[in-house]
Amino acid sequence: MGLFDNIAGEAMGKLTGQGSGQSGLLDGVMDLLGNNQAGGIGGLVQSFKDKGLGDIVSSWVGTDSNLPISPEQIQQALGAEKIQQLAGKAGVSPEAASANLADLLPNIIDKLTPSGQLPSGDLLNQGLGLLKSKLLG
């Protein structure tokens, strides 16, 4: 599965040299994307749209270039409580978590939606499981 190898390589490249706690942040991202109770990747995308960041998140899902997002916009979309949870799990400050998520989320969501469509069900769960195993050993 070359797609997940590419995602894993990019994500690890972004985290290299940023401390061992980053695997906790990446683990949190995988949980966010696969959490069916919270709507999974579709719920995450909708959360960004609801917070006025629809153009940005749509660029990650679509087939054109990804628009950048700031750490402040990440916090706006996810909320301070979720950022705090992810930061705590990773052992980093909320500011560092937001900054890393601003780098990670566009790339991960882009790679999980190569045809411009949100994956769902078993395909998403299989992909996230494979990606998680590659990233977190």
Could you explain the architecture of this structure?
The chain has 137 residues and is an all-alpha fold. The protein has a single domain (2-136), classed as YidB-like (Arc Repressor Mutant, subunit A, Orthogonal Bundle), CATH 1.10.10. 73% of the residues lie in helices and 0% in strands. The protein is built from eight helices and no strands. The protein has helices at residues 2-15, 22-34, 40-50, 54-61, 71-78, 80-90, 94-112, 121-136. Helix 3 runs antiparallel to helix 4 (54-61), helix 3 packs across helix 5 (71-78) and helix 4 crosses helix 7 (94-112). The chain is globular, with a radius of gyration of 14 Å. Residues 1-5 and 11-20 have low confidence and may be disordered.
Task: Considering the chains and any ligands shown, give keywords for the structure.
single chain, disordered N terminus, 8 helices, 137 residues, Arc Repressor Mutant, subunit A, mainly alpha
Chain-averaged pLDDT: 77
- Helix count equals 8
State the CATH superfamily name: YidB-like
Which quaternary structure do these chains form? single chain
Helix proportion range:
over 70%
What is the CATH C-level name? Mainly Alpha
Radius of gyration: 14 Å
**What's the architecture, going by CATH?**
Orthogonal Bundle
Proportion in β-strands: under 5%
Instruction: Write the H/E string, N to C.
Output: HHHHHHHH
Q: What is the structural class?
A: mainly alpha
Largest sheet: none
Low-confidence stretches: 1-5, 11-20
CATH topology: Arc Repressor Mutant, subunit A
| Distance, first to last CA | 16 Å
Number of E-type strands: 0
How many structural domains in the coordinates? 1
Shape: globular
